[in-house]
Write a structure and sequence with these properties.
Blueprint: E1 13-15, H1 24-30, H2 40-57, E2 63-66, H3 70-79, E3 87-91, H4 95-106, E4 110-114, H5 124-133, E5 139-145, E6 147-148, E7 153-154, H6 157-167, E8 172-176, E9 195-199, E10 211-214, H7 217-223, H8 235-242, H9 253-269, H10 271-292, E11 295-296, E12 308-312, H11 319-330, E13 332-336, E14 345-349, H12 356-372, H13 381-396
């Protein structure tokens, strides 16, 4: 007898919140013949992607592109603007905020952490209170994660900026937008962000390997006196060559071709439509989770992420066992619970190159997996998502 699940056919469903599915157009662009990274063709490519990233970040200030993961861009944001022993205020919103905190500690910074429950975004009023109490202005930077990928909770960056301004404090504002840029609303200049951090493998629909720092005039001024050691991450080495499309060391040439194509795709759809699509898919996913009778990790409806939904499994049921069943039977990867959510939560990614039908396939896999793994739930989550998406399509249809 032929085993039912001996060989998966069709495409693997990659429903983790990054790396996301890479569109065929982007894969074909990456397959471009490698060119001289000092030649004229590359200079044109470099200028195009650097300007394109300014468009995505919604900034007129420079954007730096590194051949690295987002962790490198975290470090670059800190070492270019701060000095040994500087105090930094960070908000603990989840696993990735915790990792950024650990990195800052290793760099010799004095980190003041606002503890959190991993179920909400950062509280702007708490940030304001800490800054108001810092009358000597020892705090040099405030670091927050825009979209906490481990929990699906969003921090309102505009409100954080307003809180800093109300306190009258001169601290820089640094924002991790790794899992929000290209999927959710992010306005670098309008929100007064000084250093924005992002990566290629999320809403930008690229493989891992590129990271970004979006700057401000205040950040560039801080870099003039910052004394943390930096070489590879040095903005000062990057910016003069970036002005003509080049880099101080060998860039990830073929990934930049892919980025150029991804930016073209985002421009064609338009950022407002991209963001609306992600909001629609997120709302459909939450409708499914509620219909299953499961609990969403993020407890604040106003802070629900458009990029992913983190879901708690009932007590006594392993989220990792559920994920294994879904992978083995239906060839779909879901995000694991991280840190204090390990084994207790799974994450459904709904960002990047994704449409309504793709999401419905993913939610079908989750619903079948819940049954196969014996996780208590109500049936009908998939139908709730289908109903939501159908109504959204009807509402968006032009009048006859």
């Amino acid at each position: 007898m032929i085993p039912l699940y001996a060989h998966p056919s069709g495409r693997h469903f990659l429903q983790i919140p990054g790396p996301t599915n890479v569109p065929d157009r982007v894969l074909r662009a990456i397959d471009h013949a490698t060119v001289d990274h000092r030649g004229p063709e590359f200079g044109r490519l470099g200028l195009a992607v650097l300007q394109g990233m300014q468009w995505v970040f919604q900034t007129r200030s420079p954007v730096i592109i590194y051949p690295s993961s987002g962790t490198g861009a975290w470090e670059a944001a800190l070492v270019n603007t701060l000095s040994p022993g500087d105090r930094v205020l960070m908000a603990e919103t989840g696993h990735f905020a915790t990792l950024w905190h650990r990195l800052a500690m290793r760099l010799g910074l004095d980190v003041e952490l606002i503890e959190g429950d991993w179920r909400h975004g950062a509280d702007p009023l708490q940030i304001q209170a800490r800054l108001a109490a810092d009358t000597g202005h020892r705090i040099k930077a405030v670091c927050v994660v825009h979209n906490e990928t481990s929990t699906g909770a969003v921090t309102d960056i505009a409100q954080v900026r307003q809180a800093i301004d109300r306190s009258g404090h001169p601290a820089l504002l640094m924002v991790d937008a790794i899992s929000s840029l290209g999927a959710m609303d992010y306005r670098h200049d309008e929100w007064g962000v000084d250093v924005g951090v992002a990566g290629s493998q999320k809403g930008l629909m690229m493989p891992p390997g590129l990271s970004f720092n979006a700057l401000s005039e205040r950040a560039l001024a801080a870099a003039q006196s910052a004394r943390l050691p930096r070489s590879y991450w040095d903005w000062g080495a990057m910016l003069p060559l970036n002005a003509s499309g080049y880099f101080p060391y060998t860039p990830a040439t073929n990934l930049l071709y892919g980025l150029h194509e991804a930016l073209d795709m985002l421009r064609a759809e338009g950022l407002p439509r991209v963001q609306a699509r992600h909001q629609r898919l997120a709302a459909a996913t939450r409708a499914a989770v509620r219909a299953w009778g499961l609990e969403i990790v993020c407890q604040d409806p106003a802070a629900h992420s458009s990029a992913l939904t983190a879901v708690l499994t009932p007590d006594g049921h392993s989220a990792d066992a559920l994920r294994k069943v879904i992978l083995d039977r239906y060839d779909m990867s879901l995000g694991q619970g991280l840190g204090r959510l390990s084994g207790k939560a799974f994450r459904i990614g709904h960002l990047g190159d994704l449409n309504d039908l793709s999401l419905c396939g993913a939610l079908a896999g989750v619903e079948m997996g819940l049954s196969a793994a014996g996780v208590p739930h109500r049936r009908g989550g998939l139908q709730a998502a289908v109903d939501y998406l159908a109504q959204a399509a009807a509402d968006a249809a032009p009048a006859a």
